Structure formats: C-alpha cells, structure tokens
Amino acid sequence: MSSLLIKNIPENLIGKLKEQAELHHRSLEKQVLFILKQTFMKPGIGPLPAPVKTRTRLTTAWITKAKKWGRL
Predict the structure, then answer these.
(1) Which are the contacts of 32, defined by CB distance < 8 A and separation ≥ 6?
(2) Which residues contact 24 (CB under 8 A, 6 or more apart)?
(3) Structural contact between residues 21 and 28, judged by C-beta atoms closer than 8 angstroms
(4) Whole-angstrom Cα distance, residue 48 to residue 60?
(5) What is the pLDDT of residue 44?
(6) Angle 11-23/28-40 helices, nearest 10 degrees?
(7) HEC secondary structure over the chain
(8) CA distance 52 to 10
(9) Which of 8, 53, 57, 68 is surrounded by the most beta carbons within 10 Å?
C-alpha cells in the first residue's frame, strides 16, 4: 500500500478532521481514508459517454441561434 504526505494543512482543517475522527471513533488517518473513499468510490462515477455526433456542424453562429430559439 502506498503512503501520502500532505504538508501545509491549515490548522482549522486539521481540527475539523480530528473532531470528525473522534466522533466516528476513528484515527485521523482512518478518517481521511474514509473521506477519500467516500468521495471517489461513489457509484455512478465512471467514464464519460461518447461525444454526440450531429448532422449540423456546431459553429458559434449556430449555437447563438439555438440559444435564441430556446428563449422564445
């Protein structure tokens, strides 16, 4: 397993992390890992869909006209 050293963390952020760790009966390290896993392992986060192919070339003029149509 890899290690990570983070420098210059603001004191107020460290304080909040410590509070959360104590609240959930975790070490500071386990709390940070939990937050990272919760953030990046959410279901639904995956590869982006393929780009949409259109028959019309999307120029700036066409996009401007389409925006105006949407405001009618």
Answers:
(1) 17
(2) 31, 34
(3) yes
(4) 24
(5) 67
(6) 90
(7) CCCCCCCCCCHHHHHHHHHHHHHCCCCHHHHHHHHHHHHHCCCCCCCCCCCCCCCCCCCHHHHHHHHHHHCC
(8) 43
(9) 68
Token pair in block for residue 63: 């996009």
Tokens of 35: 């937050």
In the structure encoding, which two tokens stand for residue 48, read together? 């982006």
| Tens-digit pLDDT string for the chain (72 aa) | 788 899 999 999 999 999 999 999 999 999 999 999 988 887 766 777 788 777 878 889 988 888 888 775
Domain boundaries defined on the chain: 9-45
